[in-house]
Amino acid sequence: MKSVLHKAATRGHANHGWLNSHHTFSFAGYHNPERMHFGVLRVLNDDQVAPGRGFGTHPHDNMEIISIPLEGDLEHKDSMGNTATIKEGDVQVMSAGTGIQHSEYNKNTDQEVKFLQIWVFPNKRNVTPRYDQISIRDIEKQNAFYHVLSPNPDDEGVWVHQDAWFHLGKFEAGSTDSYQVKKKGNGVYAFILEGEVEIDGQKLEKRDGFGVWETDSFTLKSVSESRVLLMEVPMSLEHIGQ
Prior knowledge:
The protein is built from no helices and 22 strands. The protein is mostly beta strands. It has a single domain (2-239), classed as Sandwich (Jelly Rolls). The strands form four sheets. Strands 1-20-17-22-15-13-14 form a seven-stranded mixed sheet, with no helix packed on it. The protein has a seven-stranded antiparallel sheet with strand order 2-3-4-11-6-9-12, with no helix packed on it. The chain has a four-stranded antiparallel sheet with strand order 5-10-7-8, with no helix packed on it.
């Protein structure tokens, strides 16, 4: 098994006043040639948006964009005619494809909104833009990983144009769970949302990132009450649509 460790304190950081953002991979003004991506996982931003503020209308194309709120309410509007609010317990996905424009605002005027903004390179270019969101409250499990994203539209959860699987897990102290890689050649990037865990002996704390590849499985042990996001993605950029 090969691995890479990204401690929380080593992430890129930009504080614009209304937006406080930490970048696991190179993004905007943060450029680190050793941290451009993990396979087809291109962006993992940990964003905090001030009350009533947000991202004005801006374009995207040929990217699978996933938003996972952690606290507060995020209001979304796009050029496909969608208007929606996503909150903790929801997962949102957009296939930007041939091109979309959208905006994201903190719906509340009395509290921050915190969310993960994740970009995955697609395996097909110039697809018809698409929007979806789900509540994961009915499918979440205790002390076990449950999947929230896959390549299959018929699965529970949202889907993307890529051989990627995302899982979330909430764990009590002392609990363990094993993860089986879904597709040969894929790697898994673990992002610790809360608490402290060990993955095959590697100690990880809140907001640490840990990527593993060239393995079929691994085991997570929760040292304290924890919450973890797993992102399984192809490691070869040959899986990007041309």
